[in-house]
Amino acid sequence: MIKIPLLRTGYRLPTAFTDVVYVTDGRPIPWEMRRLLRQKGLSFWQIHLDQFHLLRSLGHLIGTVVLDTPQVDRGSDQQIAATIEALEAQNIGVIVLTYRVNRPVKSFSLAPTKTSFTISRSTESVSIEDLWARISLNLSHRKKGPGMVCKPLVPGTTGGLSSPNRLADRLQETAGLIAELTEQLRLAGLVQRDFLPKQLPDSEHFRWAVAFQPAEWVSGDLYDVVRLDTTRIAFYLVDAVGHAMPAALLTIFVKQAIAFRQSQEPFAILQPAEVMEALNKKMCQERLSGYQFATCCYCLLDTGSMTLTIARAGHPYPILLRPGQGPLRIETRGSLLGIFEQSTYQQVTIELARGDKLLLYSDGAEPMIGRFDDQKGFLFSDSFLELTDHPITQLVDRLMAQTRQSMTGQAYIDDVTLLGLEVL
């Protein structure tokens, strides 16, 4: 047995079969990549580039390898080239990434291709979905090797395969289906984003901030900010029960069903409680099948009187932040949308002052904001309290970063949306 010392990087080699071995020059595996691998149920292990050559003797423990470092030059580095050839001789595919764009990737599934990864010897970027297709194909191809123990990605047949060409055809077909499906889901996510506001109504008196992070290609969250007249602005955040495509379809229904004004003359602007009641009735009357429930927080801002009126339907309480005071949850009663047609909703009106900040959020961010204690009630987390004095844009950005970091390692990841307002 070969004894491998612990190198200066702190990485060790895998000791059990691992679907994906990720090799870097010391940088962490991108958060989007970790999330994707966990969602697909694949095991993965990170090692340092210094240890790459040691994988030659561990081929029986490796499904595929991702080599992610700008220092790699397959043509000039003989040791790296020899290691890649040795792994490929053992039926282990190696994906070489030599350039990672430094701009943050807002979503591993929705980001444009120019903000993700590039494959070596290519001037075109490859999205995380394309990278997943390569990994999936490599693992499928790996099944041909003797002693392969990873779970198959291509369903087996009871009659067996008549020839090696049949397997090759199946692998090629599977890769094509994966590529087509990922592209369709990516486009569906882009269409959903078209329903989001293109810009926020910032002014000399108000500043807005938003962060939107789907758990998958599409999201069960929806937000909007709409100027109704010269002084009033409506904004809301909806969170459909569930996630992925069914929840995303429900958000599109909500987007079209929500009404800001009366349907008949004089077309007066509806109060938040009236908006919630009307939307709830529409959802109940449609008798939507599956994922038919949603939460919502709806706000009406009057910039003339400096007042804010809020109603909610089963949604996390919005948070009011005032200079020199602790965070305050604005509590109003209201049940989920789409359950009881006769549900009524309360609303509350508050007067805004200079320096006030309001934060709406979906339940994916709730663990980072605080928790409920049976004895003490709701307790804000220390990490959130440290952010309350920051401008709304910094608060939202840093809270989203903390939420993303906290999700690393979790089996289930929820959609996260933050919508903030600050009085300047």
Total strands: the figure is 18
H/E series = EHEEHEEEHHEEEHHEEEEEEHEEHHE
Globally, the shape reads elongated
Classified by CATH, the class of the largest domain is: Alpha Beta
In the CATH scheme, what's the topology name of the largest domain? Answer: Phosphatase 2c, domain 1
- Estimate the mean pLDDT confidence: 79
Full CATH superfamily name of the largest domain: PPM-type phosphatase domain
Continuous helix count: 9
Largest sheet: 6 strands, mixed
Rg (C-alpha, Å): 26 Å
Uncertain spans? 1-9, 100-125, 145-163
Count of the separate structural domains = 2
Tell me what the CATH architecture of the largest domain is: 4-Layer Sandwich
Intertermini distance: 67 Å
Helix content: 25-40%
- How much of the sequence is in beta strands? 15-25%
Which class of secondary structure composition applies to the elements?
Answer: alpha+beta
Commentary on this structure:
The chain starts with 17 loop residues before the first strand and ends with a strand. It has helices at residues 31-39, 78-89, 128-142, 164-194, 244-257, 272-286, 366-369, 382-385, 392-407; strands spanning 18-24, 44-48, 62-68, 94-100, 117-119, 125-126, 206-213, 221-227, 232-240, 294-302, 307-313, 319-321, 328-329, 347-351, 357-361, 370-373, 377-380, 416-423. α3 (128-142) runs antiparallel to α4 (164-194). It folds into 2 domains: 18-189, Rossmann fold, CATH 3.40.50; 197-423, Phosphatase 2c, domain 1. With 424 residues, the chain is of the alpha+beta class. Strands 2-1-3-4-5-6 form a 6-stranded mixed sheet. Strands 7-18-15-12-13 form a 5-stranded antiparallel sheet, with helices on one face. Strands 8-9-10-11-14 form a 5-stranded antiparallel sheet.
